[in-house]
TrEMBL record:
Pfam families: CofD. Gene3D superfamilies: CofD-like domain, CofD-like domains. This is Phosphoenolpyruvate transferase. Its cofactor is Mg(2+). Catalyzes the transfer of the phosphoenolpyruvate moiety from enoylpyruvoyl-2-diphospho-5'-guanosine (EPPG) to 7,8-didemethyl-8-hydroxy-5-deazariboflavin (FO) with the formation of dehydro coenzyme F420-0 and GMP. CDD domains: CofD_like. Homodimer. SUPFAM superfamilies: CofD-like. Its EC number is 2.7.8.28. It catalyses: enolpyruvoyl-2-diphospho-5'-guanosine + 7,8-didemethyl-8-hydroxy-5-deazariboflavin = dehydro coenzyme F420-0 + GMP + H(+). 7,8-didemethyl-8-hydroxy-5-deazariboflavin binds at residue 53. Belongs to the CofD family. It comes from the Bacteria.
Length: 329
């Protein structure tokens, strides 16, 4: 049988952990990852790509396992020195080892290489065992429209402001109401080289349990990508990041609310819709959602969806591939 070509649209932690299971389930498959770059941020003059790096470090064996992001064995001397100069932000934790990645990336971008080429170069060191593509070489930055926490209280409409996604997520811990999620620059962005080709050539397209709004939603916001996935001949199967009506980790419920979607496995499937999804996996605790999802024209199964270790995650990947085969047949 020829090598199976699998395309995965991924965010950070959820996407990376799923990919580790997928690689273990189908070691011979050719896996292309289309990574979210809407979380990217410029800090201290450096370009930081949190989701691409989480995938690269996780699959390359450099991740801080318990934390799920950043480098293992990290130290924070640079951060302390910056703080001694009074230079922040102090709420974004970049370690010394991680800094090196951002320095190399920024240097290459400055020399004129596109982000896709830079990512490929960084992956030469990490050997993630997948082809890691940024969704776009163009700058896209997710902003969140919030009630201004610093606005003076008073009569009239509350004042709102847009903040960078990282400020909302990391500094404010999604603790203020979000009214809109805006992928700034997405409309003008072009898919990175190889993205549309990989989708068109795929045997299976998977949505891992990544954030449906600010990870997969941002990838799909790049003009051409949603259309390519919807029009692909390959079956498209997703795995719910919502288990028992709550995100497994993080605050996906807050950004789902901002786009008017309930935090349930069925509502997330409905948000993607049958135009995009052919199959959807929900956790066994959400077995009651199967009927609703199938009524919406999406084939659905309830299976364990907790990525407790690589074996459990590999089993999830096998279920997703089996559902894809079922849809194809
Ligand atoms: P981020 O960019 O680091 O936020 O990561 P992603 O967007 O890739 O994934 C975040 C999502 O992964 C969250 O909405 C979590 O609910 C989900 N998630 C994390 N661990 C698990 C798990 O073990 N099982 C499932 N089903 N979802 C998970
Ligand atoms: Ca992310």
């Amino acid at each position: 049988m020829p090598t199976q070509r699998i395309v995965v649209l991924a965010g950070g932690i959820g996407g990376a952990r799923f990919l580790r299971g997928l690689k273990s389930a189908v070691p011979d498959a050719g896996i292309t990852v289309i990574g979210n770059t809407g979380d990217d941020i410029h800090l201290f003059g450096l370009k930081v790509c949190p989701d691409l790096d989480t995938v690269m470090y996780t699959l390359g064996g450099g991740i801080h396992e318990e934390q799920g992001w950043g480098r293992a064995g990290e130290s924070f001397a640079v951060k302390e020195e910056l703080a001694a100069y009074g230079v922040g932000p102090e709420w974004f934790g970049l370690g010394d080892r991680d800094f090196a990645t951002h320095i190399v990336r920024t240097q290459m971008l400055g020399a004129g290489y596109p982000l896709s080429a830079v990512t490929e170069a960084l992956c030469e060191r990490w050997q993630p065992g997948v082809r890691l593509l940024p969704m776009s070489d163009d700058r896209v930055e997710t902003h969140v429209l919030i009630d201004d926490p610093d606005a003076a209280a008073g009569p009239g409409a509350p004042s709102r402001k847009a903040v960078h996604f990282q400020e909302y997520w990391v500094r404010l811990r999604a603790g203020v109401p979000a009214h809109a999620i805006i992928p700034v620059g997405a409309e003008q962005a072009k898919p990175a080289p190889g993205v549309l080709e990989a989708i068109a050539a795929a045997d299976v397209i998977l949505f891992p349990p990544s954030n449906p709004v600010v990870s997969i939603g941002t990838v799909l916001a790049v003009p051409g990508i949603r259309e390519a996935v919807a029009g692909a001949s390959a079956p498209v199967v997703g795995l719910s990041p919502i288990v028992g009506d709550a995100p497994v980790r993080g605050m996906a419920d807050k950004v789902l609310a901002a786009v008017g979607v309930e935090s349930t496995a069925a509502a997330v499937a409905g948000h993607y819709g049958s135009g995009l999804l052919d199959g959807w996996l929900v956790d066994t605790v959400d077995a009651g959602a199967v009927e609703t999802v199938e009524a919406a024209g999406i084939r659905c199964r309830a299976v364990p969806l907790m990525m407790t270790d690589t074996e459990a995650t590999a089993a999830m990947a096998r279920e997703a591939l089996a559902l894809a085969e079922e849809v194809r047949a």
